[in-house]
Design goal:
The structure holds two protein chains of two kinds.
Chain A lengths: L5 E7 L6 E4 L8 E8 L7 E8 L7 E9 L2 E10 L2 E7 L9 E8 L7 E9 L8 E9 L8 E4 L10 E7 L5
Antiparallel strand pairs in A: 1-12, 2-11, 3-8, 3-12, 4-7, 4-11, 5-6, 5-10, 8-9, 9-10
Chain B lengths: L2 E8 L8 E2 L8 E8 L8 E7 L7 E8 L4 E9 L2 E6 L10 E8 L8 E9 L7 E9 L10 E4 L10 E7 L8
Classes of the chains: A mainly beta, B mainly beta.
Chain lengths: 174, 177
């Protein structure tokens, strides 16, 4: 039977760690989706969440981005990096109780092809001068199946109450 | 499976905007999927929302839109309602509706202000089409769980046939750490 959005793991940050890792990801789905509600302890209004797979920190990641900031819209990207960007999110000066929202979609995570994924994220505050929203396309140039994924907080720790929910998606006919 | 239908509202006659009330508090996240067209005859309409009936100046919104020519952004805060997308309207070609998919994470939290993230498509087969990513933030004086969502367009309301589907999404108790 096909299963849409099957909950696999959930982690809630305590505020004392700068990374969250999901290990031993079941190899029984076709796609993965990760839903993140996060805030950073970094002393700024913004921090940057990155990710890597299987503990692999070699320079085989790339990413591409379209964004909106108060200064306008644009695009950028990175090549030959050791992790991918998946979204900006609020940090310590962003206002009490403000958390960002990131959706990260990872199709075909067991494939022997390179791993393409994408995210959409929003960092919204009670302000018109400090915000960031956008979409990232990411690539992990490895033929290995993804068995773990690590999310890195950037400059601070993931604040207490930040949640990371991992889901499996099984296509029709499996 | 973790995505459960909570309620579905189809606009039966022109001019009303839907309300989801008494939202169950037993899910982790909400997703609201909208297929809509405004009953008013302006060239397009915004998608408006309020949470828990709050009319205070507690809403912010931002967007990143493509309008067929360029990417644009805009921001606002301090309004008495939020905006979370563009909707086709009754001045557009008959039969054209727009799509808005809204995610609200940790909607029962009493420590997190509520951030809405939406993907919006409004292709009206003419100038004025938009696709975009929207965010909105609700910051009431006391942080509250969401129990009610009012959504729709301006006072002219939605066109008959517009449909709004609310889902609840669960999470796992396993951590995978």
């Amino acid at each position: 039977m096909s299963v849409f959005l099957q909950p696999i793991f959930t982690q809630t940050a305590s505020g004392s760690a700068n990374s969250i890792t999901f290990n031993n990801i079941p190899q029984t789905y076709t796609d993965l989706q990760i839903v993140i509600s996060a805030r950073s302890t970094y002393s700024s209004w913004i921090d940057y969440c990155t990710a890597w797979y299987n503990g692999d920190r070699s320079s085989i990641y790339t990413d591409t981005y379209i964004y909106a900031l108060s200064s306008g819209t644009g695009g950028s990207g990175d090549s030959a990096t050791t992790a991918v960007n998946i979204g900006s999110y609020p940090a310590a000066t962003s206002g009490t109780g403000v958390f960002g929202s990131i959706n990260y979609y990872m199709p075909n995570y067991r494939s022997s092809n390179y791993k393409s994924a994408m995210s959409d994220f929003v960092l919204d505050m009670a302000s018109t001068s400090t915000y960031n929203l956008g979409l990232w396309a990411t690539l992990y140039s490895s033929s290995n199946a993804i068995t773990s994924v690590t999310f890195y907080a950037g400059n601070g720790n993931f604040a207490s109450g930040s949640t990371f929910s991992l889901y499996g998606i099984l296509r029709q006919g499996v | 499976m973790s995505m459960f239908p909570i309620a579905s509202i189809t606009i039966a006659s022109n001019g009303s905007n839907p309300t989801f009330s008494s939202i169950p508090q037993n899910f982790q996240h909400l997703q609201l999927r909208c297929y809509m067209r405004a009953a008013g005859a302006t060239s397009y309409q915004y998608v408006y929302f309020r949470l828990n009936g709050d009319t205070g100046s507690n809403y912010a919104y931002k967007y990143l839109n493509g309008n067929g020519t360029s990417a644009v952004t805009s921001a606002s805060f301090g309004g008495g309602y939020g905006l979370i997308g563009y909707s086709a309207s009754n001045s557009n070609t008959t039969g054209i509706f727009s799509t808005v998919i809204i995610d609200i994470l940790d909607y029962t939290s009493t420590t997190k202000n509520k951030t809405l993230r939406s993907l919006n498509g409004m292709d009206i087969n003419a100038s004025g089409s938009n696709s975009g990513l929207w965010s909105a933030l609700w910051t009431p004086s006391t942080i509250a769980a969401i129990t009610q969502i009012d959504i729709g367009t301006d006072s002219y309301g939605c066109l008959a046939g517009s449909r709004f589907d609310l889902y609840g999404i669960n999470t796992s108790s396993a951590t995978g750490a």
